[in-house]
Design a protein that fits this description.
Length: 334
Protein backbone atom coordinates (compact mmCIF):
# COMPACT_ATOMS: atom_id res chain seq x y z
CA UNK A 1 0.00 0.00 0.00
CA UNK A 2 1.12 3.54 -0.74
CA UNK A 3 0.11 6.67 1.17
CA UNK A 4 0.71 10.05 -0.44
CA UNK A 5 1.19 12.60 2.34
CA UNK A 6 -0.11 16.14 2.26
CA UNK A 7 2.34 18.98 1.56
CA UNK A 8 3.58 20.42 4.86
CA UNK A 9 2.41 17.40 6.81
CA UNK A 10 2.97 17.45 10.53
CA UNK A 11 6.14 15.48 11.40
CA UNK A 12 4.83 14.48 14.83
CA UNK A 13 1.66 13.05 13.29
CA UNK A 14 3.78 11.07 10.83
CA UNK A 15 5.81 9.64 13.72
CA UNK A 16 2.61 8.53 15.46
CA UNK A 17 1.29 6.99 12.28
CA UNK A 18 4.46 5.03 11.51
CA UNK A 19 4.58 3.76 15.10
CA UNK A 20 0.98 2.59 14.75
CA UNK A 21 1.82 0.74 11.51
CA UNK A 22 4.78 -0.96 13.18
CA UNK A 23 2.47 -2.19 15.94
CA UNK A 24 0.46 -3.80 13.16
CA UNK A 25 3.59 -5.56 11.84
CA UNK A 26 3.83 -3.30 8.81
CA UNK A 27 7.11 -1.86 7.58
CA UNK A 28 6.79 1.85 6.70
CA UNK A 29 9.21 3.27 4.09
CA UNK A 30 9.33 7.03 3.65
CA UNK A 31 10.33 8.52 0.28
CA UNK A 32 10.64 12.31 0.21
CA UNK A 33 10.49 13.77 -3.30
CA UNK A 34 10.78 17.43 -4.30
CA UNK A 35 7.01 17.91 -4.16
CA UNK A 36 5.52 14.70 -2.85
CA UNK A 37 6.22 12.50 0.14
CA UNK A 38 5.19 8.89 -0.09
CA UNK A 39 4.88 6.40 2.72
CA UNK A 40 5.11 2.83 1.42
CA UNK A 41 3.77 0.00 3.58
CA UNK A 42 5.08 -3.52 3.31
CA UNK A 43 3.23 -6.43 4.85
CA UNK A 44 -0.34 -7.62 5.03
CA UNK A 45 -2.38 -4.46 4.61
CA UNK A 46 -5.64 -6.28 3.95
CA UNK A 47 -7.05 -5.29 7.36
CA UNK A 48 -6.38 -1.59 6.87
CA UNK A 49 -9.38 0.57 6.08
CA UNK A 50 -8.42 2.77 3.14
CA UNK A 51 -11.22 5.29 3.80
CA UNK A 52 -10.08 5.70 7.38
CA UNK A 53 -6.48 6.32 6.24
CA UNK A 54 -7.64 8.87 3.67
CA UNK A 55 -9.56 10.74 6.33
CA UNK A 56 -6.38 11.38 8.33
CA UNK A 57 -5.05 14.94 8.51
CA UNK A 58 -1.68 14.17 6.97
CA UNK A 59 -2.83 11.77 4.23
CA UNK A 60 -3.63 13.06 0.74
CA UNK A 61 -4.50 9.66 -0.75
CA UNK A 62 -4.02 5.96 -0.15
CA UNK A 63 -3.71 3.29 -2.81
CA UNK A 64 -3.40 -0.43 -2.60
CA UNK A 65 -0.78 -1.76 -4.92
CA UNK A 66 -1.85 -5.30 -4.30
CA UNK A 67 -5.35 -6.62 -4.77
CA UNK A 68 -7.03 -7.39 -1.44
CA UNK A 69 -7.93 -10.89 -2.58
CA UNK A 70 -5.14 -13.35 -1.94
CA UNK A 71 -6.41 -16.94 -2.17
CA UNK A 72 -8.35 -16.22 -5.36
CA UNK A 73 -5.54 -14.19 -6.92
CA UNK A 74 -3.85 -15.60 -10.00
CA UNK A 75 -0.62 -13.82 -9.01
CA UNK A 76 -0.25 -16.23 -6.10
CA UNK A 77 -1.61 -19.25 -7.98
CA UNK A 78 -0.80 -19.00 -11.69
CA UNK A 79 -2.30 -22.37 -12.66
CA UNK A 80 -6.03 -22.64 -13.40
CA UNK A 81 -7.98 -24.36 -10.65
CA UNK A 82 -9.72 -27.49 -11.88
CA UNK A 83 -12.76 -28.54 -9.86
CA UNK A 84 -13.93 -32.14 -10.09
CA UNK A 85 -17.59 -32.94 -9.54
CA UNK A 86 -18.09 -36.67 -10.02
CA UNK A 87 -16.82 -37.36 -13.53
CA UNK A 88 -17.14 -33.73 -14.57
CA UNK A 89 -14.23 -31.32 -14.50
CA UNK A 90 -14.47 -27.57 -14.72
CA UNK A 91 -11.60 -25.17 -15.31
CA UNK A 92 -8.16 -25.53 -16.85
CA UNK A 93 -9.58 -26.08 -20.33
CA UNK A 94 -12.43 -28.33 -19.14
CA UNK A 95 -15.72 -26.80 -20.24
CA UNK A 96 -18.81 -27.82 -18.25
CA UNK A 97 -22.46 -27.20 -19.04
CA UNK A 98 -25.02 -26.99 -16.25
CA UNK A 99 -28.61 -27.19 -17.43
CA UNK A 100 -32.06 -27.67 -15.99
CA UNK A 101 -35.17 -25.83 -14.91
CA UNK A 102 -35.25 -22.60 -12.97
CA UNK A 103 -37.29 -24.39 -10.30
CA UNK A 104 -37.94 -27.97 -9.44
CA UNK A 105 -41.69 -28.33 -9.99
CA UNK A 106 -42.41 -32.08 -9.91
CA UNK A 107 -40.67 -35.43 -10.24
CA UNK A 108 -41.96 -35.88 -13.75
CA UNK A 109 -40.92 -32.39 -14.87
CA UNK A 110 -37.44 -32.67 -13.37
CA UNK A 111 -36.67 -36.22 -14.49
CA UNK A 112 -37.90 -35.55 -18.05
CA UNK A 113 -35.70 -32.47 -18.33
CA UNK A 114 -32.75 -34.23 -16.67
CA UNK A 115 -32.82 -37.09 -19.21
CA UNK A 116 -33.13 -34.64 -22.08
CA UNK A 117 -30.33 -32.28 -21.06
CA UNK A 118 -28.11 -35.26 -20.37
CA UNK A 119 -28.79 -36.62 -23.87
CA UNK A 120 -27.91 -33.19 -25.28
CA UNK A 121 -24.55 -33.19 -23.47
CA UNK A 122 -25.08 -31.35 -20.18
CA UNK A 123 -22.64 -32.42 -17.47
CA UNK A 124 -24.61 -31.21 -14.45
CA UNK A 125 -28.28 -30.75 -13.59
CA UNK A 126 -29.51 -27.50 -12.07
CA UNK A 127 -32.85 -26.83 -10.38
CA UNK A 128 -33.96 -24.40 -7.72
CA UNK A 129 -35.56 -25.86 -4.61
CA UNK A 130 -35.34 -22.67 -2.53
CA UNK A 131 -36.23 -19.78 -4.82
CA UNK A 132 -35.31 -16.15 -4.17
CA UNK A 133 -38.37 -14.42 -5.68
CA UNK A 134 -38.93 -10.68 -5.83
CA UNK A 135 -42.55 -11.18 -4.77
CA UNK A 136 -43.48 -13.12 -1.64
CA UNK A 137 -46.66 -14.20 -3.51
CA UNK A 138 -44.70 -15.89 -6.32
CA UNK A 139 -43.84 -19.62 -6.24
CA UNK A 140 -41.14 -20.01 -3.57
CA UNK A 141 -39.91 -23.46 -4.62
CA UNK A 142 -40.59 -26.95 -3.27
CA UNK A 143 -37.87 -26.43 -0.65
CA UNK A 144 -36.65 -29.68 0.97
CA UNK A 145 -38.96 -31.73 -1.27
CA UNK A 146 -37.26 -30.09 -4.25
CA UNK A 147 -33.88 -31.32 -2.99
CA UNK A 148 -35.29 -34.85 -2.63
CA UNK A 149 -36.49 -34.70 -6.24
CA UNK A 150 -33.08 -33.47 -7.42
CA UNK A 151 -31.49 -36.46 -5.67
CA UNK A 152 -33.96 -38.76 -7.44
CA UNK A 153 -33.06 -37.22 -10.80
CA UNK A 154 -29.38 -37.63 -9.96
CA UNK A 155 -29.94 -41.29 -9.17
CA UNK A 156 -31.79 -41.80 -12.46
CA UNK A 157 -29.39 -39.96 -14.73
CA UNK A 158 -26.08 -39.92 -12.87
CA UNK A 159 -25.89 -36.15 -13.35
CA UNK A 160 -24.41 -34.26 -10.37
CA UNK A 161 -26.80 -31.61 -9.07
CA UNK A 162 -26.49 -27.86 -8.50
CA UNK A 163 -29.00 -26.04 -6.31
CA UNK A 164 -29.20 -22.77 -4.45
CA UNK A 165 -28.92 -22.25 -0.71
CA UNK A 166 -30.70 -19.19 0.67
CA UNK A 167 -30.19 -19.57 4.37
CA UNK A 168 -27.57 -21.09 6.64
CA UNK A 169 -30.22 -22.93 8.64
CA UNK A 170 -30.88 -25.12 5.56
CA UNK A 171 -27.28 -26.30 5.21
CA UNK A 172 -27.91 -29.82 6.53
CA UNK A 173 -30.41 -30.36 3.69
CA UNK A 174 -27.53 -29.93 1.22
CA UNK A 175 -25.45 -32.88 2.45
CA UNK A 176 -25.88 -34.85 -0.77
CA UNK A 177 -25.97 -31.88 -3.12
CA UNK A 178 -22.91 -31.82 -5.39
CA UNK A 179 -22.58 -28.08 -5.97
CA UNK A 180 -24.10 -25.45 -3.68
CA UNK A 181 -25.17 -22.32 -5.50
CA UNK A 182 -25.02 -18.91 -3.86
CA UNK A 183 -27.41 -16.70 -5.79
CA UNK A 184 -26.87 -13.12 -6.89
CA UNK A 185 -28.95 -11.81 -3.99
CA UNK A 186 -26.77 -13.59 -1.45
CA UNK A 187 -23.36 -12.84 -2.94
CA UNK A 188 -22.58 -10.59 -0.01
CA UNK A 189 -24.25 -12.66 2.72
CA UNK A 190 -20.93 -12.91 4.48
CA UNK A 191 -22.08 -15.19 7.31
CA UNK A 192 -23.36 -17.66 4.72
CA UNK A 193 -20.11 -17.43 2.74
CA UNK A 194 -18.02 -18.01 5.88
CA UNK A 195 -19.99 -21.13 6.76
CA UNK A 196 -19.72 -22.48 3.20
CA UNK A 197 -15.98 -21.96 3.59
CA UNK A 198 -16.04 -24.69 6.21
CA UNK A 199 -17.67 -27.23 3.90
CA UNK A 200 -15.75 -29.12 1.26
CA UNK A 201 -18.36 -28.79 -1.46
CA UNK A 202 -17.88 -26.84 -4.68
CA UNK A 203 -19.67 -23.50 -4.46
CA UNK A 204 -21.13 -21.77 -7.51
CA UNK A 205 -20.95 -18.10 -6.57
CA UNK A 206 -23.09 -15.81 -8.69
CA UNK A 207 -22.20 -12.17 -9.22
CA UNK A 208 -24.49 -9.78 -7.32
CA UNK A 209 -26.96 -7.65 -9.23
CA UNK A 210 -24.85 -4.53 -8.86
CA UNK A 211 -21.53 -5.95 -7.77
CA UNK A 212 -18.12 -5.14 -9.13
CA UNK A 213 -15.71 -7.88 -10.11
CA UNK A 214 -13.59 -7.00 -7.10
CA UNK A 215 -16.59 -7.47 -4.82
CA UNK A 216 -17.28 -10.84 -6.46
CA UNK A 217 -13.67 -11.88 -5.87
CA UNK A 218 -13.79 -10.69 -2.27
CA UNK A 219 -16.88 -12.86 -1.73
CA UNK A 220 -14.98 -15.83 -3.19
CA UNK A 221 -12.20 -14.90 -0.77
CA UNK A 222 -14.64 -15.24 2.16
CA UNK A 223 -15.32 -18.84 1.17
CA UNK A 224 -11.66 -19.62 0.48
CA UNK A 225 -10.48 -18.03 3.72
CA UNK A 226 -12.40 -20.75 5.58
CA UNK A 227 -10.46 -23.45 3.74
CA UNK A 228 -12.82 -24.28 0.88
CA UNK A 229 -10.92 -23.53 -2.34
CA UNK A 230 -13.58 -24.99 -4.63
CA UNK A 231 -15.28 -21.84 -5.86
CA UNK A 232 -16.79 -21.42 -9.32
CA UNK A 233 -17.58 -17.83 -10.28
CA UNK A 234 -20.69 -17.07 -12.32
CA UNK A 235 -21.33 -13.97 -14.42
CA UNK A 236 -25.12 -13.68 -14.66
CA UNK A 237 -25.64 -10.13 -15.88
CA UNK A 238 -25.69 -6.89 -13.93
CA UNK A 239 -28.15 -4.04 -13.45
CA UNK A 240 -27.71 -1.21 -15.93
CA UNK A 241 -30.01 1.50 -17.33
CA UNK A 242 -31.01 -0.89 -20.14
CA UNK A 243 -34.49 -2.36 -19.77
CA UNK A 244 -34.70 -4.29 -23.05
CA UNK A 245 -32.99 -7.24 -21.37
CA UNK A 246 -33.49 -8.51 -17.81
CA UNK A 247 -29.86 -7.68 -17.02
CA UNK A 248 -26.82 -6.70 -19.07
CA UNK A 249 -24.41 -9.55 -19.71
CA UNK A 250 -20.90 -8.37 -18.90
CA UNK A 251 -18.93 -10.52 -21.32
CA UNK A 252 -15.74 -8.60 -20.59
CA UNK A 253 -15.96 -10.00 -17.05
CA UNK A 254 -14.95 -13.39 -18.44
CA UNK A 255 -11.45 -12.61 -19.77
CA UNK A 256 -10.89 -10.11 -16.97
CA UNK A 257 -11.76 -12.58 -14.22
CA UNK A 258 -9.64 -15.22 -15.90
CA UNK A 259 -6.74 -12.78 -15.73
CA UNK A 260 -7.34 -11.85 -12.10
CA UNK A 261 -8.13 -15.28 -10.70
CA UNK A 262 -7.36 -18.95 -11.18
CA UNK A 263 -10.95 -19.93 -10.30
CA UNK A 264 -13.23 -21.27 -13.04
CA UNK A 265 -15.66 -18.75 -14.56
CA UNK A 266 -19.04 -19.74 -15.95
CA UNK A 267 -21.70 -17.63 -17.63
CA UNK A 268 -25.46 -17.79 -17.10
CA UNK A 269 -26.98 -16.34 -20.29
CA UNK A 270 -30.53 -17.13 -19.10
CA UNK A 271 -30.68 -14.73 -16.15
CA UNK A 272 -28.35 -12.33 -17.96
CA UNK A 273 -30.83 -11.72 -20.78
CA UNK A 274 -34.22 -12.99 -19.60
CA UNK A 275 -35.03 -13.79 -23.25
CA UNK A 276 -34.78 -17.35 -24.56
CA UNK A 277 -33.84 -16.23 -28.09
CA UNK A 278 -30.75 -14.48 -26.77
CA UNK A 279 -29.42 -17.52 -24.94
CA UNK A 280 -27.77 -19.08 -28.00
CA UNK A 281 -25.82 -16.01 -29.20
CA UNK A 282 -24.76 -15.17 -25.63
CA UNK A 283 -23.69 -18.77 -24.95
CA UNK A 284 -21.54 -18.76 -28.06
CA UNK A 285 -20.11 -15.36 -27.08
CA UNK A 286 -19.29 -16.59 -23.56
CA UNK A 287 -17.56 -19.70 -24.86
CA UNK A 288 -15.60 -17.63 -27.39
CA UNK A 289 -14.57 -15.17 -24.65
CA UNK A 290 -12.95 -18.00 -22.68
CA UNK A 291 -15.60 -19.06 -20.16
CA UNK A 292 -15.07 -22.40 -18.41
CA UNK A 293 -18.72 -23.31 -18.62
CA UNK A 294 -22.34 -22.26 -18.94
CA UNK A 295 -25.44 -22.48 -16.78
CA UNK A 296 -28.61 -22.57 -18.89
CA UNK A 297 -32.27 -22.81 -17.89
CA UNK A 298 -34.18 -25.54 -19.73
CA UNK A 299 -37.85 -26.47 -19.33
CA UNK A 300 -39.92 -29.16 -21.03
CA UNK A 301 -42.81 -26.69 -21.39
CA UNK A 302 -41.46 -23.13 -20.95
CA UNK A 303 -44.86 -21.45 -21.38
CA UNK A 304 -46.12 -23.30 -18.29
CA UNK A 305 -42.97 -22.92 -16.18
CA UNK A 306 -43.65 -21.75 -12.62
CA UNK A 307 -40.62 -19.48 -12.83
CA UNK A 308 -38.57 -17.85 -15.61
CA UNK A 309 -40.39 -19.43 -18.57
CA UNK A 310 -39.53 -16.52 -20.88
CA UNK A 311 -35.81 -17.24 -20.63
CA UNK A 312 -36.04 -21.04 -20.58
CA UNK A 313 -35.05 -23.14 -23.58
CA UNK A 314 -36.83 -26.28 -24.69
CA UNK A 315 -34.59 -29.37 -24.58
CA UNK A 316 -34.39 -29.20 -28.41
CA UNK A 317 -33.25 -25.58 -28.31
CA UNK A 318 -30.72 -26.49 -25.61
CA UNK A 319 -29.33 -29.25 -27.81
CA UNK A 320 -28.91 -26.74 -30.65
CA UNK A 321 -27.10 -24.29 -28.31
CA UNK A 322 -24.81 -27.06 -27.06
CA UNK A 323 -23.78 -27.89 -30.65
CA UNK A 324 -23.12 -24.24 -31.46
CA UNK A 325 -21.00 -23.87 -28.31
CA UNK A 326 -19.02 -27.04 -29.05
CA UNK A 327 -18.29 -25.68 -32.53
CA UNK A 328 -16.84 -22.44 -31.17
CA UNK A 329 -14.82 -23.90 -28.25
CA UNK A 330 -11.73 -24.83 -30.32
CA UNK A 331 -11.44 -21.15 -31.27
CA UNK A 332 -12.04 -19.75 -27.77
CA UNK A 333 -9.76 -16.99 -26.53
CA UNK A 334 -7.82 -18.52 -23.64
C1 LIG B 1 -31.00 -18.98 -10.35
O1 LIG B 1 -29.96 -19.36 -10.92
O2 LIG B 1 -31.98 -19.72 -10.19
C2 LIG B 1 -31.09 -17.60 -9.85
C3 LIG B 1 -32.03 -17.23 -8.99
O3 LIG B 1 -30.16 -16.81 -10.35
P1 LIG B 1 -29.58 -15.39 -9.82
O4 LIG B 1 -29.21 -15.60 -8.41
O5 LIG B 1 -28.43 -15.17 -10.74
O6 LIG B 1 -30.69 -14.39 -10.01
MN1 LIG C 1 -34.34 -18.63 -12.90
Amino acid sequence: MILVLKENYDKKQLENLTAWFREKNLEPHLTEGAHTTILGLIGDTSKLDIDMLESMDIVESAKRIQEPFKSANRKFHPEDTVIEIGDVKIGGGNFAVIAGPCSVESEEQLCTIAEQVKAAGAGLLRGGAFKPRTSPYAFQGLRSEGIDLLLKAKKKTGLPIVTEIMDLSHLSLFDEVDVIQVGARNMQNFELLKELGHTNKPILLKRGLSSTLQELLMSAEYIMAGGNEKVILCERGIRTFETATRNTLDISAVPLLRQLTHLPVVVDPSHATGISKLVKPMSVAAAAAGADGLMIEVHNDPSRALCDGAQSLTPEQFSDVKKAVDAVLPFASR
